[in-house]
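Reviewer comment 2.1 asked that we show a complete input and output for one of the modelled complexes. We chose the adenosine-5-diphosphoribose case, as it is the one discussed in the main text.
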Amino acid sequence: MSGLTEEQRRLVDDLARRLRAARDPMALTGAGVSTESGIPDFRSAESGIWREHDPMEVASLEGFRREPRRFYTFWEPRFGKLGEARPNAAHRVLAALERAGMLSGVVTQNIDGLHGVAGSERVLEVHGSYRQARCLRCGRVESLEAVTERVRQGRLPICEDCGELMKPDVVLFGEQLPPVFAEATRLARQTDLLVVLGSSLGVHPVAGLVPEAHEAGAAVVLINREPSPYDEMADVVIHGELGPVSRALAERLGFELAD
Ligand code: APR
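Response of the prediction step:
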């Protein structure tokens, strides 16, 4: 298993054993699973988006209502890149685990849709998805591209039914999470193995799924480049790069990570 230390290889073996033995394992992912697909995360020291931009300006409901057009022009190039991104080994090993009946679902904070592109079927997008925009009043849904086109033409992104603002269907700071979060909480309470990949676990309520699963008796495995507030609570912590760890896990479990 190339690129791993002896310690990381041992921990990957332990994770493989736990996945084989688990009754109802689940995964929780963050932006760290998509960086190797070319999508920057939020809090990495050098490249995280929040290192250069204030999330309260460009990712809060209040900021959106205040300057909706600026919101679209800030996110348009980033959302545009999401459409070109391809899944990497981390997405593919989770899809392979689900196909092998060794993962009941992926709860993801990511809006890039790459788990679905990689073949994962049960994906709970608890922070929404970049593909569409939704009216803040009547709930009308349109493709994000259609609404962004109106902004490009200098028009306000308003609903063609009721005239209220159309907002990208991603959860902004200060917003409630979508109903799918209740299902994610149910999964966390019934799982016996929660594997967290690529999240700093600093944003609630999603980060709260880790103690929730732990208190319900699940084993917790964290895979991340940097420490998280839940490292102490976890049963296994693999500090490392998700690409090599995912490829090593796939090899250990006999999965072919088709491109
Ligand atoms: N391998 C391993 N770890 C990685 C890799 C990688 N290739 N790339 C990044 N990481 C780690 C970073 O070190 C970081 O700890 O992934 C973590 C990503 O953390 P964040 O950038 O905070 O992303 P996330 O946890 O998903 O943020 C949660 O915050 O801003 C909101 O809504 C946004 O969904 C997001 C939420």
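The longest strand covers residues 128-135. We note this here for comparison with the apo prediction described in Section 3.2.
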